[in-house]
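Section handout 9: paired folding examples.
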Amino acid sequence: MTSDIQYTTPGMDAASAARVIELLQDRLNAANDLHLTLKHVHWNVVGPHFIAVHEMIDPQVEVVRGYADDLAERIATLGGSPVGTPGALVAARSWEEYSIGRATTQQHLGALDLVYRGIIESYRAGIKELDDLDLVTQDMFVAQTEQLELFHWFVRAHLEDTGGKLSTEGAGSEREAAAQAG
């Protein structure tokens, strides 16, 4: 990828820029996947708490769509070319397709607990690596992680009992989390 970079931001070498672009592209793929997954949940959630969850999800979709744009523009700023096509996303992602269709609010929220857990863990890994590469991009990752953690808390508040235990505790897959939460 370094050979594809004709220029980068002042003060950053091409090799560092290439790695930062890789980290940004991975998060761009995750943001595009997440906002589509959240919209899928918005359309497919049913049950007694439908309207509360339906309306909770849409603002998350809009924020995450904005993250995708910010990430893509940072890639371009560093001299890269952001890739936002569906085929490229599917080919590059390291996670499975969201596995829940029409389901109750609790089932979708259980599955989303695992989705958010995975995306936040990958953001935090990027934050650590960026500490030595690019503090500007790291700052972007930190800000996005803060908001994603808030959204995760919104989801988890529906899955928590009064003692603080999550209904999804120990779940290893979306389907397992959905079953435990449902």
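Moving on to protein 2 of 2.
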Amino acid sequence: MKHFILLCVALLWSCALVSGNMISLAQKMNERLGYMKDVAGYKAQHHLPVEDVIQESKVINSSLTEAVSLGLDAESTRPFVIAQIDAAKAIQYRYRADWLSIPEVEWEPEPLEVVREKIASLSSEILQQLALQIGEGLICVDEREGFVSHLAQKNLYCADKMRLFDSLLCVRPLSNDNN
């Protein structure tokens, strides 16, 4: 009985730790996605398309290089990086669609290069935290609801949130074969 109680306490503590880590990860992702209004506004002002294949390729390559340096398997991390890019583009498209009907007034977006630096920094922080969590084996399907409920960004839909979480479940550490 004593061992059972200790096991239960350990599991409860572990669940609390997991929830806190997932909430923190969701908050960093919220902050990153929060810059999409500026990105969309800058691109709209300068008649640039939302989709920038060259920039996306740079982001994917640098993210996967960093992921490997942090001990994450690149191929299992790729869907997560792409899900973030797709969510970011979806938010940008939705802002631009809204502005067709109701233009944004008395607001100026930050310059794209400044915003991209901030996004890159947050992307790195997200990967670092993800690597820590994966290293501790802390991401599980039971955390979906908490993670999704803490992703609260304008123009980020439930389907986007679910895809982001599902892609997190795929991330794996580097195997010994890859070292």
